[in-house]
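Hi all, long-time lurker, first post. I run a small reading group and we've been trying to get comfortable going from sequence to structure in the token notation. Rather than ask abstract questions, I figured I'd post a concrete chain and ask someone more experienced to write out its structure so we can walk through it together at our next meeting. Sequence below, copied exactly:
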Amino acid sequence: MPHAPIPIMRGITGSLSLSIFDVWRSGTMEFERVPVDGSKKMPDDYMDSIEPFDYAGLKPFSTAYLPGYLADKYDVTAHESMERADRRFRSSAIDQMRRDVSGYETVNQVGDNVRLHRGKVHYALMPVWTLRTKWKNEDYLFMMNGQTGNMVGDLPVSNGKVGAFFAVLAVVLSGLMLWSGLGQLIARIFLA
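-- Answer (accepted) --
Happy to help. Here is the structure in token form:
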């Protein structure tokens, strides 16, 4: 490619070499046992965050597993879950193809052509423990994968305590800097 003069600073010029490449990727991917949340009550991003699940130990469903526990019946039909499953398959395939393109400073995706072939849908009751709690009139949800212990949730945060923590930290660090003379050294460097 030809070199073109470009202004760098106040009349100083240099040259820039730019190479553009077309990169094409194609492939076939198979997905098995990709869970899609079957409950409208559960946030999908929480459910995605506590994956993966171990499918090797799955057993046929029996109400004998549930005494003493609460379980919700699914309220998302197989047909309704297909769109979400398709989005997950599509984004996973595109992400994998993107990761395969390396050695370039920037890569701009121009298009894609993902064709999906659906398999069967199977319902499964996965070991997900949930905790809902209320603190200062706010509801908080926590979820845990019962196999791996992966946990997700929003912790209640007291803005006053966070502000007080950083204020105390600033005072302590300022005191240490003044006591050690480091503050004067920093002032000389930045004010010189």
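A couple of things your group might point at:
Residues 135 and 156 are 7 Å apart (CA to CA).
The chain has two domains: 4-121, 158-192.
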